[in-house]
Amino acid sequence: MTRRLAALSVVVLAAGAIAFAPRDPQSDSTLKKSFRNAEKNGWTYVHLEGTPAEIGYQHGYQLAPEILDVKQVIELELKHDTKKDYQFFRTAAKDMLWPHIEPEYRQELEGIAAGANAHGVKVDIWDIVVMNASIELGSYYNDWYNKKHNIKDDAPAAPEHCSGFVATGHYTRDGKPVIAHNNWSGYLDGGRWRVIFDIVPAKGQRFLMDGMPGWIHSGDDFGVNSAGIAITETTISRFHGFDPDGIPEFVRARKAMQYARSIDDFARIMTEGNNGAYANNWLVVDNKTNEIADLELGLKNVNLRRTKDGFFVGTNFPVNDKLMREETEYDPKDLSYSAAARHIRAEQLVDSNIGKIDAAFAKRYLSDHYDSFDKKDNAPSDRTLCGHVDLSPRGIKSWQPPFGPAGAVQNKVADSAMVAAMSFEAAAGHACGRDFKAASHLKQHPEFAWQKDLLRDVDAQPWTRFSTSK
Length: 470
Description:
alpha+beta; Penicillin Amidohydrolase, domain 1; nine-stranded mixed beta sheet; 17 strands
C-alpha cells in the first residue's frame, strides 16, 4: 500500500467558502486519512475519508495528474462532438448547474480543484463541474440548447452505454442477488475509467465504486454501499429530454450511492429534482432482502419494477412503451439495432441459465459475442453484449460511423457475498480478452486523427477483486 501525503489546512472564510493552505505534512491529519495504491491490473485504488471538503481535497491531490489528463480528453471530445468551444460548457456549469448543486457536493467539488492545485495541476471549480457533468452537457443539454435556439447540427444523440443485468431468487445459484455491468464508451475516455474509489464520508454510507479521476460519481454507476445496496445502470437509447432547472444527474447518482439504504430510498433520491439528463435504466440490489429493482428514469416517465424472484437486463433498450414513444426516437421494429439485438440475447442467456446464475456466469455474460440478429456466434460488434464498435463493418447508428474506436472498456460483477463484504470483481478492457491498439487503428482510420495525441491502447486485463480497506 503506497500513500501520498501532502500539506493541508482548512480555513473557513467569512463567506462560508473553504480555502486550503499548505502545511507541514507531518502535522496535517487530512491527507493521512487517504491513500492511493499502486496500479493493479489496470486499476488505481484510492481511499478517501472525511468531510466533503476533505474528501474532495484528498481526491484532487491523490489523482491530480490523472485529473488534468481527463480534463484534456473531455475538453477535446466536447469541442469535437458539439462544435462548441469549451467556454460554452464552463458557462453552463457556472450559470445552470451550480445553483442546483447542494452544499455538500459543492464543497467536495471545490475540494477536488483545491487538491489538484496543491499538487501543481491548474484546474478550477468550473473545470471540475464540466468534467462531472460531461455526459449530461455533451448530449442532453447540448440537444436541448440546440432545439431552443434553432441550431441544426449532427452532434450525437444520447449514446448507448453499457450492458448489464441483475437477478435473484430461483434464477441464481444460491437464490441471492447477482449484478453485472460493462461500461461502453469511446476508448479515448473509456481507457481512463480505471479508478476504484473507497469512500468513507462523514455522513451516509461508506461505498466502493468504479469511476473516473475528478468525478464525485461513478459515471457508469457501479458500486456497493455499507447498507447492502448495489447499483448499476445502462442508458436509455436515443433519448431526448432535459430540464435546466433540475438537479444534475451526477449529483443525484452520487447522493443515491452514498445515502440509499433501500430501493425506496434509491428511487426517491434519483427522481427528486430529476433533470432528465443521462436517462437510465437503473438496476438495484437490496442485499438485506434479496430484492432487486429496475428504475427506468426518463424525464416525463418514471417506471419502477421490483422483485424477489426474477431478473432485469439492461442493454439501452427502452422498456416502457409510453416512455419509448414520448421521450425517444427509438424504432422498436428495427431488430438490427444494437439495443434490440443485445436485449434479445441478454434475455436468452438469463432464461437458459435459470438456477445457474452466479459470478462466473456474469463474467461469461459480459464477454458474450453472439449476434442475435445475424444469429452468429463469435461475431463481436455493437450488437454483442461485449461491445466492439471498432470492429463493426456497418454504419453505427448510435456511435461515430463507421469503425468508431469504442466498446466495452471495463467490467464489474458482484454476488451477494461480495456485496455483504463491500467488494466486487472488475476487469479492465474487454472481458473477452481482445485488445484495442490505438496506433494500428488510427493508421487504418485516419478520420480519427483528432484523437491521436490522447488515444491509448485498451488492453484486456484479468478479473481482480477489490474491497474496502480495513
